[in-house]
Write a structure and sequence with these properties.
The chain has seven helices and nine strands; from the N terminus they run ααββαβαβαββαβββα. The chain is α/β, with parallel strands linked by helices. It has a single domain, classed as 3-Layer(aba) Sandwich (Rossmann fold). It binds S-adenosyl-L-homocysteine.
């Protein structure tokens, strides 16, 4: 088992208190983020910054999202226990672990083999039972999901993913090319394109959702 010291637990409670002050109200999100040790998902060199509201470098030139972003995306999902959630962009696995802790059945896709290998192992060692896949998030994963969360900046709403969302389901996705994205929540009210309800939740900055499968490109 990895270490989770009283100091780290204390820092984490402080982080969660700030999230609460910052407007996060979903108690299930706040509880999960109190319980999941974020430092387990960060390289030891950056461990000291784990409970600051910062994005940090992880392997393969990617970043772990800021705690406030993880909290916001998790809250926007309006999760209920046992829901099937598809995550695009496993990265460090921290968001994945938070969703697992909230009682979701999580399926997560990462296109970078280095991150996929490492994070699959970390999640397992830490006891989070997500199903991890190496592949292209634009293709999603065969099946139908109650919720879809995209944790990289998408230039447009991937139609394949909308097809994998159940009617009544919710997709949370940062939309936009370049430095900034708009956080969108799309509720699929019916099977047709016009039956989507779209809500916007402010500006964020994500690494881009890249096309294709890194296994093929490199
Ligand atoms: N939730 C993660 C976010 C990591 S950054 C965390 O907090 O750690 C976003 C991740 O999306 C990166 O790891 C990147 O490699 C991945 N990604 C980008 N485009 C993708 C695609 N098309 N399919 C799957 N993963 C993708």
């Amino acid at each position: 088992m990895r270490e989770d010291s009283y100091i780290q637990q204390g820092l984490r409670r402080g982080m969660v208190e700030k999230l609460r002050q910052g407007g996060i109200t979903d108690e299930a999100v706040l509880r999960a983020m109190t319980e999941v040790p974020r430092h387990w998902f960060i390289g030891i060199a950056l461990d000291a910054y784990a409970y600051e509201d910062r994005a940090l470098q992880i392997d393969c030139d990617q970043t772990i999202s800021r705690p406030s972003t993880v909290a916001m995306q998790s809250q926007l999902l309006a999760l209920k226990p046992n829901m099937k959630v598809l995550e695009i962009g496993t990265g460090s696995g921290y968001q994945t672990a938070v969703l697992c802790r909230m009682g979701a059945q999580v399926f997560t896709i990462e296109r970078q083999k280095g991150l996929f290998d490492k994070t699959t192992r970390v999640l397992k060692e830490c006891g989070y039972r997500a199903k991890c896949f190496l592949g292209d998030g634009y293709q999603g994963l065969a099946g139908s999901y109650d919720r879809i969360i995209v944790t990289c900046g998408a230039p447009e709403i991937p139609q394949t993913l909308m097809g994998q969302l159940k009617t009544g389901g919710i997709m949370v996705i940062p939309l936009g090319e370049g430095e900034e994205q708009e956080m969108m929540r799309i509720t699929k009210e019916g099977p047709e394109h016009e039956e989507w309800k779209v809500e916007k939740f402010g500006t964020y900055s994500f690494v881009p959702m890249l096309d294709g499968d890194a296994r093929v490109k490199r």
